[in-house]
Design goal:
The chain has helices at residues 18-25, 34-47, 65-72, 83-91, 108-117, 127-140, 175-187, 208-226, 254-265, 278-281, 314-318, 408-413; strands at residues 4-7, 10-13, 16-17, 29-33, 53-58, 77-80, 99-101, 121-124, 144-151, 173-174, 191-197, 233-235, 271-274, 285-296, 301-305, 324-326, 337-342, 351-358, 366-369, 391-395, 398-403. By secondary structure, the protein is α/β, with parallel strands linked by helices. The chain has two domains: 4-31 and 284-413, Lyase, Ornithine Decarboxylase, Chain A, domain 1; 34-281, Alanine racemase (TIM Barrel). It is globular. The structure holds ligand LLP.
Amino acid sequence: MDHFIYKNGALHAEDVAISEVAAAVGTPFYLYSTATLQRHFTVFDEALDGLEHKIFYAMKANDNIAVLRTLAAMGAGMDVVSGGEYAKARAAGVSGDMIVFSGVGKTEAEMRQVLAGGIRQFNVESEPEMRQLSRVATDMGKIAKITLRVNPDVDAKTHAKIATGKSENKFGIPMSQAREAYREAASLSGLEVVGIDVHIGSQLTDLEPYRQAFTKVAELAEALREDGHNIHRLDLGGGLGIPYERSNEAPPLPVEYGQVIRETLGHLECEIEIEPGRLIAGNAGILVSQVIYLKHGEGRDFLIIDAGMNDLIRPAMYEAHHDIIPVIEAAPGLEPAPVDIVGPICETGDTFSKQRAMPPLKSGDLVAFRSAGAYGAVMASEYNARPLIPEVLVQGDQFAVVRARPTYEEMISRDTLPSWMES
Ligand code: LLP
């Protein structure tokens, strides 16, 4: 069920009219639907029915504390990749035993921080990291539970910048070295091996790479058990894709993904952990922007809007498609015409879409980017001294600003002058 729908020609999120939020908050802004976040969590939970499982939301997708609280209240744990994410998860009320720590470059300071605060497991990505963690945990008198992330060398068939499971990628330990790495892990003090971790990429729209990767993980789990390791947790990462272009995309459903897990790994009777980010948050959010000008160029029209690549970088960075829809539905009979939809930033890359068929729009009209709830606000910057844009959460007929737009003064006051300059 879609919670972003037109009612009497006006786009709503649940029971809130988008134009009302725009009038109250100003544009541009991100807006998230509680009901959609909850539904996506439930869909995953049900997809793994019958398997002992836990869902660790990959909070890199959207780390607003109100979003984290919404999901934690449903029973979600968090997958974190930095000391900052760990601190945010804890601030949202998530306990350490519901947090897993992923990432290829965990620092000693981060290891100390999470061991002191409590952590369910480290997903270790290399032998040097494993040795460092052993030193830190031993020094602190702690036992760090670990999985080793293996690199199964499969082609995830997704955008090159977000594929992680090929041997040429920086992630994980090659399958061929895994048994040796586990042997070393078992010999090190301060560590307890609990399972295996794998994550092959993001925005996967085909289940076959998962089937290949999980089959290799199952073989490894059996070999490791024979070697005497107590393999009882399998962290399968995230990555299941979402439809960005509603008219012609139908990626696999979580229930089908759950079936692949059952078929490839079910017999091992391990606890299954998954780390979805995009599928939970992506289609739970929109970016709302206002048209500044419609400019007639030579041979093409440009719709210049007040959101820029600093607010939503995905089109510039991954050639990503986002559906862009008018907040007030076009009157019947008005023909769509192609326009280039661009932001105000001084770069040609600040282009959201070329020759997109759009209904007639004029200065002051509002548009909404769909599927902007994941990797939207979290990847924003203040390039061109444009303050980070606000985030709004909707629940039923209520909305609240869950991150305010900084004032220019707040933005400026973060810079400080060195002593040798006159203030
Ligand atoms: N687990 C690990 C270890 C990850 O590296 C990631 C994503 C996830 C889970 C969650 O993947 P998801 O379910 O969200 O696909 N900025 C890019 C996506 C980068 C994904 C990085 N890792 C984008 O905008 O498409």
